[in-house]
Write a structure and sequence with these properties.
heterotrimer; A mainly alpha; B mainly alpha; C mainly alpha; A: mainly alpha; 6 helices; 0% strand; C: mainly alpha; two-stranded antiparallel ribbon; 26 helices; 74% helix; 3% strand; globular
Amino acid sequence: MGEAAFWFIVAVTLISALIVVSSRNLFYSAIALLFTFFGVAGLYIFLWADFLAGVQVLIYIGGILILILFGIMLTHKITSVDISHTSVQQGVGGIVVLLLFAALAWMIVRTPWLVAAAPEPPGTAGEIGKLLMTDYMLPFEVASVLLLGALLGAAVLSRKGN
Amino acid sequence: MEQLNSYLIVAAILFCLGLFAVITRRNGVAVLMGIELILNSANINFVAFARFGGMNFSGQVFALFVIIMAAAEAAVALAIIINLYQNFKSINVDEAQQLQR
Amino acid sequence: MNIFIQYALVIYLLPLAAFGIQIFLGKRLPRQGDWVSIGAVLTTLILALAMFAGMLLNYNPDFETRAAFTWIDQGAFQIRMGFLIDNITIIMLLVVALISSMSHIYSLKYMAGDPRYSRYYAFLSLFTFSMNGIILADNLVLLYMSWELVGLSSYLLIGFWFEKDSAANAGKKAFLTNRVGDIGFFIGILIFFTAIGSFSYGDIFAGVAAGKLTGTLLTLGGVGLFMGAVGKSAQFPLHIWLPDAMEGPTPVSALIHAATMVAAGVYMMVRLFGLMTHDTLLLVAYIGGFTAFFAATIAITRNDIKQVLAYSTVSQLGYMILSVGTGAYVAAFFHLLTHAMFKANLFYGAGSVIHSMHHALHKKKDHETDPQDMRNMGGFKSKMPITYWSMMASTLAISGVPLFSGFLSKDAILAGTLSFAGKYPQHFLLPVFGFGAALITAFYMFRLMYMTFHNQPRRPDIYREIKESPREMVFPLVLLATLCLFIFYTLPNVNPLSDEGWFSTLIVARDSVVPVEMGPVIASEIEEGMHHSHYPAMGISIVMVALGILLAWLMYLKRRLSPAAWADKLKPLYRLSAGKYFVDEIYAKYLYRPVLGLADRIGYLDWDLYDKYFINGFGRVTTWLSTLSGKLDYDGLDQGIIDGIGRVIRYFGAILRGLQTGRLQSYLLFALLGIIIILVFQTI
C-alpha cells in the first residue's frame, strides 16, 4: 500500500511537472503546477516532514500559486485567446538538459551516500520551532527583514509611472 | 521506496524540467514557474538528506528558509514582470533584449 | 561612575547639544530657539550648583575624582581622554555656568531683533562648551582642543557683526594674536609629551616628580605653556587683541572678560602651576606685574566706556598672572573668582548704559554721536539708579575697598608679592607694580563712574531720553552686584578684614613637583609669608586706593584739579598713555610692515622671475615638444598602427557578433553547456 502510494505520488508530481513545462496554455501550466506542489507535499510526508508538508501547501499553493495566477491575469486580457505561449530553442535546450540529467543521475547512482538510520520522530513542528528559536535565531530574524524588503521592493517596482 | 536514491532521482528530474522551462519558455510567468520547480527539487533534496542522514532537523529548517525565500522571490519577480509588461506591452522575456543593442 | 563625573558629563555635553540644535534648526524654532540655549545653560547652572553644594558638604580640600577612557590606542602610543574634578574645577564650572547664564538672559533684550539672533545663541553655547572642556580636561589633548575651540568661538563672536569692517578685523586680530601664543603652547605640550610619553596631567606630574624632565627643557616647557596663557589671557606683549575685541556684542565681552576666554589662561596656569620652575615663574611674575601696571596706565586716558573696562581687564589679569608667578596661585584663583563676578557686572552695566544711549540716539535720529563715548554722558545716576548702584558695588570691589570681594583677593595677591619680595629683595619691583596698579585702578574706575553718572549732563538732549534698561538686563546686574560683597567668599567667617572661610579652607596650595634645586619658592612657604605680610599689604593697599579715589574725586567730581592741565604738565606720559604706548604702531612698523614687505619681495621672486621665465619658458618648450610628438603620434601611429588594429578587431567582431543574441535564455544555455563540459572533464 505504502509502496503504491509512493509511486503514485511520484507519478503525479512528475507528470504534472511535465505538463507545466510543455503545455502551450499558460493557465493549464498553472493548474498543473498546483498538482506538482501537492505531489511534493506528499513526498515530504513520506520523508517524515509533516510540518513542512503543511507549510508547502499553505505557502506554495495558498500564496505563490495565487500570486502567479494574478500575474497571468494582470498581464493578459482575460478574454483574449492569446493566453497560450510558445517556446524557443527547444531542441538545443532539450539536449542540454538531458545531458545534465544524465550527469546528475550518474553522480547520484555512483556516489556511496552516508546513510544513518533513525527512529521516526513523533512530530516535527516542535523540534523545528526549538531550532528556530535557538540555533537559527539570526537567520529567522533576517528572513523577516528579507520579507519586509521584498514587500517594499515589490510595491516600488510595480508602481505605475517611473 | 525507502531509498535515498529514488528521492534524489525524482528531485533531479524535477530540477531538469524546471531548468528546461527556464531555458525555453518565452513567457516570463512560465520562467517563474520553472524557477519554482527548481526550488522544490532542491527542497526535496534537503529533506531527503535530513531524513536519511539520521533525522537531522537542520535540513528541514533549511527547507523552511528556502520556502520563505521563494515567497519573497515570487513577489519581487512578479513585480518585475508587471513592470516589464508596462514598459514593453509584452511579457516575453526574449523581446526584452536591449543587451544586444 | 560617580555622581560628580555624571554631572560634569551632562554639563559638558548639554551646551554642545544646544549648539547643534541651534545651528541647524535655530531659525525654524519658535522664538528662533533662544529657549534651547537658555534652557541648556540654566540646566548646567543647576547642576553646577548641585556640584558646588556637594563640594561644601564634603568640605574636603583634597577632594579629587577622575574618569578617563582610552581614545587612541596604538600600542605604545596611547591618548587617554578624561575629566579631572577637584574643588578648583567645581568652582570654575559654577563661575562659567553663572556668568554664561547671565549673558544668555541679558542677551534676550540686548540682541533682540538681530538678524542672526539664533546663530548668536548657538555661538554662545559653543563658547560655553569649549570653556567647560578646558575646565574639565585631565589631559593636555582635551585642554588643547578646547583651547582652540575657545579661540574659534571668540573669533565668531567678536566678529559677530561682521558687516562692520572694524568688527571683522577685531575677530581676525584676536584669532591671529592668540595663534602666536598657541604656537608656544603647542611646543610646550610637545616638550612634555616627548619627555614623559603621556598627555594626562597625572602622568606628567608624576613624570616631572620622578625627574624624567629636568633642567632647561623643563623651564622651556613651562615657558611654552605660559605663552599660551599670555595669548589667551591677554598679557603684554600679546594684549593687543583684547581692547579690539570690544567690537563684539557687550554680553559677549562680559563672557570673554569674566568667565571664559581670558580666564582660561589663568586657570591653566593655576592647574599646571606644579610644573613651573623658578625661572619660568620669574618670567611669569614680571610679565604679569608689568601688564598689570602698564594696562592700568592706558586705561586712565580712554574715553570709550568699554575700552576702560577692557584695559582694566588686562590689568586685573596681570594681577592674577603676577600672583601665579610669585607662587601664590591660590590667591590668583581667588581673584579670578571675584573678578569674574564684578567684571561681568561692570560689563553688563556698561552694556545697559550703551543700550540706553542707543535708544536715545535712535529716537533723535542721531547717527553721528558715539553711544560708547563717556564725554557724551554724565548725570545718568538719577535716570538709571539700578544700573548705577550695581556698577558702584562692582567699582568698589575692583578698586579694593573693604567689605567688597575684590579687597580680599587683591590683598591676598599683594601680600603674596610682598612676601616674595621679602624672600628675594632683588625683585622689589613686583610689589611696586602691584600697589601702583591698585592706585591707578581706583582712579580710573572712579573716573568712569563720575564721568558717566555724576555731574550735570553734558548732552541734555540725550539725557532727556535716557531710561533704565528692561528687566532681563537689570536682573543679572542686581544678582552679580550682590555677589560683589565679601561675605559670599568668606562664610562662615564674617570678619571683613580676613579671607578665612570656605574658599581658603577648600582651596589650598600644593607644592610644586619640580625638583627642589630648580623649584620655585615653596608654595606653602609663600602661604606662611603671606600671613605675615597680610596686614602690611592691607594697610598699604587701603592707602593707595584712598589716594586713587581722592584724586578722581578732586579731578572729575569737584573739579579742583583740571585733568587737562595735568595732562599738559605730564605731556610725554600723557601721550604715551593716550597712544596706548604705541604698541600697535610698533608692531605695525617693525613686525607687520617688514613681514608684508618681505612677502612682496618673495612674491616678486615667485611671480615675476620664477613664474614668468622659468615656468612659462618650461611651458613653451613643452608645448613645442608636444606639437611635434602629436604630429608623429597622429599621422604615424594613429593612422597606421592603431587604426589598423581597430580595423582587424572590427572584422573579427562582426563575425563573433552572431553569437551574442542578447537573449538571457541563450546565455543561460551556454552557461549550462559550460557546466556540463566541466562535469565531464572532472569525472574523466
